[in-house]
């Protein structure tokens, strides 16, 4: 009888201390991690948009250069007025 009361008390103390640790230590830490994760996600989105904008600008520049070079090649490959005499 005494052993079962001691075990019940020990079980209650361990359960209460585990619950208080979760409530007062882990939960606030979890909320802080969640807030930082949201900030990190927003920063990653901004970075991805900035990089996408830079990539599109570089592609536009390359496309313009390619079109310019292609037009020059077309002009060079067109036969000029060839005269036999």
């Amino acid at each position: 009888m005494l052993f079962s009361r001691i075990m019940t008390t020990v079980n209650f103390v361990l359960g209460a201390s585990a619950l208080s640790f979760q409530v007062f230590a882990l939960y606030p830490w979890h909320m802080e991690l969640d807030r930082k994760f949201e900030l990190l996600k927003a920063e990653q989105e901004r970075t991805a948009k900035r990089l996408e904008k830079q990539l599109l600008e570089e592609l536009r520049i390359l496309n313009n250069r390619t079109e310019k070079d292609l037009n020059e090649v077309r002009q060079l490959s067109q036969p000029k007025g060839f005269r036999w005499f």
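The mean pLDDT is 92. Helices lie at 2-77.
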